[in-house]
Each structure stands twice: as structure tokens, then as C-alpha cells.
Specification:
Layout (H helix, E strand, L loop, with lengths): L1 H13 L1 H21 L3 H29 L5 H30 L1 H21 L18
Helix pairs in contact: 1-2, 1-3, 2-3, 2-5, 4-5
């Protein structure tokens, strides 16, 4: 709830692109910390950091999607986006369970941490993300 209150302030202070890129690295670091944590409270702190970062990142994603996707397609785009995200969650749960059974929970979580590194690095070089450098209120809505 705190992240939802602060998300707008964070986005205004840092800018949408920086929030998006920084969020990718917070995901990597927090998941990595959860993998090597030895105490339950440490895992909880790492999970809170991951979830806290998700709110401004998702806010940027949804806001720019609403501006760039034509109204007639927003339902389809939202459905495909949600389907992809939920599919990855379910596949990820099964895969992490298998990996944890074979190699232990820390190794399984570190594998998922490694999967988040390429998108985090790509955030620095993806030219398509330059559109996030224009403040949302200055972006012309696609009709």
C-alpha cells in the first residue's frame, strides 16, 4: 500500500525510464538476496523490496500502454499481456519447484535471478525505451 501511495512521487522524481530500468535491477538484487538469505525475516525484506519496486514499474507500463495502444485494441493487448504474465508465473512455479527439489531452494532462486539479468541489462540499451524519457503528460495519445 505504501508503494501505491509513493509510486507517483517516485515516477515524477526519477522519470519513467529510470524507474523502469531501476526496477529491473531491484528485481535482480532482491531475488538474489532472497536466494542467499539465511533467516525468514531476510527473505521477507527481500520480497517486500521486490513487490515495492513492482508498483512504480507496473504503473509506468500500464500508463504508457494506455497512451500508445489504440482504444479499440486495449482489451486484446491487456488480455495477451496478462495471459503471458500469468503463464510465466505458473510455468515458473513448476520449474522452481523442480529445480528446488533437484538442487535446493537457493540454487533454484538463483537460476531465476540469472533469468532476470538479461532484461535488466537490456533496459540500458533498448532504444525503444527512449519513449519513456518523454513525460507521460507530454506524450500524444494514439487514437
Amino acid at each position: 500500500m505504501l508503494a501505491s501511495v509513493l509510486a507517483g512521487l517516485i515516477i515524477k522524481k526519477l522519470g519513467s525510464r529510470r524507474v523502469f530500468v531501476l526496477g529491473g535491477w531491484i528485481y535482480v538484487v532482491s531475488l538474489g538476496l532472497a536466494a542467499v538469505a539465511t533467516r525468514p525475516w531476510q527473505i521477507a525484506v527481500a520480497a517486500c523490496l521486490f513487490v515495492f519496486a513492482s508498483v512504480p514499474v507496473v504503473s509506468v507500463w500500464e500508463a504508457y500502454t494506455a497512451v500508445f495502444v489504440p482504444d479499440r485494441l486495449i482489451g486484446r493487448v491487456g488480455a495477451v499481456s496478462n495471459f503471458a504474465a500469468q503463464s510465466l508465473v505458473w510455468i515458473g512455479i513448476l520449474l522452481v519447484g523442480f529445480l528446488a527439489d533437484q538442487f535446493g531452494a537457493p540454487a533454484a532462486v538463483l537460476c531465476f535471478t540469472a533469468l532476470l539479468i538479461p532484461p535488466a541489462v537490456a533496459g540500458h540499451f533498448a532504444r525503444s525505451l527512449t519513449l519513456l524519457e518523454t513525460p507521460l503528460e507530454q506524450v500524444e495519445e494514439y487514437r
